[in-house]
Design goal:
Layout: E1 2-15, E2 19-26, E3 30-36, E4 53-59, E5 68-75, H1 78-81, H2 85-98, H3 108-119, H4 127-141, E6 160-163, E7 170-172, H5 173-176, E8 184-185, H6 188-191, H7 201-223, H8 229-246
Antiparallel strand pairs: 1-2, 1-4, 2-3, 4-5, 6-7, 6-8
Helix pairs in contact: 2-4, 2-8, 3-4, 4-7, 7-8
């Protein structure tokens, strides 16, 4: 059997003397692995870099086999991204998040968001917002989505300013004022439709804090994935550094 699809490189590991096992997030076939014969050659190595987008053909005798990938370059952005520490750490964090998904389980929306995010990871005006949105989408697809459409207290959709750290529901400014010190700030770009590139540093910080709370509580803790804490912390540090360098 065989299929063709677009895929984002999220991992490569050595197999024997000349081949590699490619891990890719694909548009229609989810997170998928396959052998690339000759993947360690000088000609193939630039193509099989973290963050590149590829055209893939997968073949196997049986569906449950690991199969073999034939690859063709689509967007070889890795060289550009590796020049930015924020982008490099972002690629590692993006890949770690995608590995939380079950193998071969389609997530077309996450694929599209991941591919767009990878393309902009070296842009500090856009990447942090896109990453926060992507983290929220991962939470939602894994069953832990936040409900920020309306106030949990009043039902109003106006003046949403906080998120409950317990329920993950939005709270309006007036309703949440008495408990503001116990609530998580809701960044304006998640509630007011702020244009990409117009996000304040404070909102970036609030967004990173918001998603991190629920990722750590609902995904990392229960799965024993505390090793990923450092990966996220390094990415957040590089985001802050990149924003500071722009001032």
């Amino acid at each position: 059997m065989d299929w063709n699809d677009r895929g984002l490189v999220i991992g490569v590991r050595r197999l024997g003397e000349t081949s590699v096992i490619l891990e890719a997030m694909t548009e229609r076939h989810g997170r998928h692995l396959g052998v690339v014969r000759g993947g360690r050659s000088r000609a193939m190595q630039p193509t099989l870099q973290l963050g590149n987008s590829l055209e893939l053909i997968w073949r196997a005798r049986l569906e449950e086999h690991i199969g073999v990938f034939a690859v063709e370059a689509d967007d070889l952005r890795a060289g550009r991204l590796m020049a930015s520490q924020m982008a490099l750490q972002g690629l590692h964090w993006l890949s770690a998040l995608l590995r939380l998904l079950p193998e071969r389980d389609p997530h077309a929306r996450l694929y599209a968001m991941a591919d767009a995010l990878a393309a902009h990871l070296d842009n500090p005006n856009v990447a942090p917002e896109l990453m926060v949105r992507f983290e929220m989408a991962v939470l939602a697809d894994l069953g832990f989505g936040l409900d920020i459409a309306s106030c949990a207290v009043s039902g109003s959709c106006d003046e949403l300013a906080y998120v409950s750290p317990k329920s993950g529901r939005a709270v309006g400014r007036a309703a949440g004022a008495p408990w503001a010190d116990r609530l998580l700030p809701l960044p304006a770009f998640l509630s007011n439709g702020v244009d990409a590139g117009a996000v304040s540093d404070a909102d970036v910080e609030a967004g990173l804090r918001l998603t991190w709370h629920f990722l750590r509580r609902d995904l990392f803790g229960p799965r024993g994935l505390e090793s990923l804490v450092a990966v996220r912390e390094i990415f957040a540090r590089e985001v802050r550094r990149a924003l500071e360098n722009q001032r």
